[in-house]
Amino acid sequence: NAGVTQTPKFRILKIGQSMTLQCTQDMNHNYMYWYRQDPGMGLKLIYYSVGAGITDKGEVPNGYNVSRSTTEDFPLRLELAAPSQTSVYFCASSQKETDNSPLHFGNGTRLTVT
Amino acid sequence: AQRVTQPEKLLSVFKGAPVELKCNYSYSGSPELFWYVQYSRQRLQLLLRHISRESIKGFTADLNKGETSFHLKKPFAQEEDSAMYYCALRAGQKVTFGTGTKLQVIP
Question: Best label site of A8, A14, A89, B51, fewest CB within 10 Å?
């Protein structure tokens, strides 16, 4: 099993450009998450989804959009990139909220906005 | 709202010394707590969860509801333990992470 796969691994954007960070999982997990990781700040939740067609905002959703058209895919879209969005982005999935289900993480996408 | 606090950004210990990574939480309900680890150039991965009461790679963590803590401990640090450690709390669908502690084991 591939687990959680993120693409691309690295990207440099100019201010104002847009892009989509891809995330797919092959574990049939219901829950999927997007986090950003900034030095000294830990992981901040951007958006999450509890199933296809359902998404909800996390702590830091401004400047991002998501969609969940299938169970497997949970892309994160940046419409107008800003330097403050320079970060490492992690996608994660888990089976469900009970049974202490842990998160399974992708390898991350390192994004630089200049 | 839930909150996870890891007071130390960096913890340096000598090889063979005991390790304790602190984690405190605030949550009104019954918490589900986890420790995740990120080794250099690797993805975040689960280390252990409180409900399992397990020992993984020599690490243990006990949930203390009175002190609202979930500290991670290991009696004898090894060089391969050097990594970034995150404490996390699951409340329903949301999972909240602390800011992380970088553990540096000095040979």
Answer: A14
